[in-house]
Automatic annotation (TrEMBL):
<dbReference type="GO" id="GO:0051213">
    <property type="term" value="F:dioxygenase activity"/>
</dbReference>
<keyword id="KW-0560">Oxidoreductase</keyword>
<keyword id="KW-0408">Iron</keyword>
<dbReference type="Pfam" id="PF07063">
    <property type="entry name" value="HGLS"/>
</dbReference>
<keyword id="KW-0223">Dioxygenase</keyword>
<comment type="similarity">
    <text>Belongs to the 2-oxoadipate dioxygenase/decarboxylase family.</text>
</comment>
<dbReference type="InterPro" id="IPR009770">
    <property type="entry name" value="HGLS"/>
</dbReference>
<protein>
    <recommendedName>
        <fullName>2-oxoadipate dioxygenase/decarboxylase</fullName>
        <ecNumber>1.13.11.93</ecNumber>
    </recommendedName>
</protein>
Amino acid sequence: MASLDLAHTSSFKGGSETFLRNVFENILKTYLRKNPTTKRIWELIQSLDNEKICYDHFTFMTLKVDSYGIDSLSSFFMNYGYKIGLWFSPPDVIVPDDGHGLGNGPLPRLVMGEILVDELSPESQAIIRKYLKPEGGKQALLSSILGSLIWEKPTWSEFKQIAEENELAAWAFINGYTLNHLAFAAHRLKHVLEHGFDLNHDGGVLKVSTDGLLLQVSSISEKLPVEFADGVTKLVPASYIEFTDRLVLPQFKELPYDQIKEFHRREDFALNNADNILESSRFTSNV
């Protein structure tokens, strides 16, 4: 991974930029440690000749109950300059022309999903509330860095109840604040479709926004063994990886390639793409 020694002066405000980048680096390390197939994809992209990884966005899932929702994670990042919108946009930092990775590349956008626990069935709500104690969400960032649940693991029957009702809720309940997925900035990479990845076909392998300027491809979550509180071991979806290609906006299409910066490219996300991308961590029909 890239060194975190910053070789440039930054306009970053709100605290130490080096500290923020170290937080991201450790979230990434945990994500790769817990997801072997994702790690192999990451290493393959890292190894491509003359390729330098940059990250488009990091995505987390949360459970909106007591102190465990989006605010449990977002408050830290907002203290370091992230701005809230439909997603969290990074603070302004000075990035060298050859800046890459989490060491001195562009800071990733943040996407934070939130499961509305109050809209689940009374049975599923009771299970989740049984495990998620008030105020525990204050440890959300530490949980994401360590890859450990704040709450105890449920029994298989409890997990199955939630999974049969809402797969994303079940994913968040068993994976906690571990990164759901990260997205490479694919316009900085080449050949991302040429290596036989197990890809998400929902909405087509290549998911295209209605304006044609946002292209996304994602892998399928591998299923890893989890031992539940009652000793039952089952395979459940882990995390996955995404490639996001933000094309140059029409008003900048005549710019020479070496003059194109991030702000010349499409910025927003697309709901139709996002709905299909989230299917990457779906369960099998037999939970």
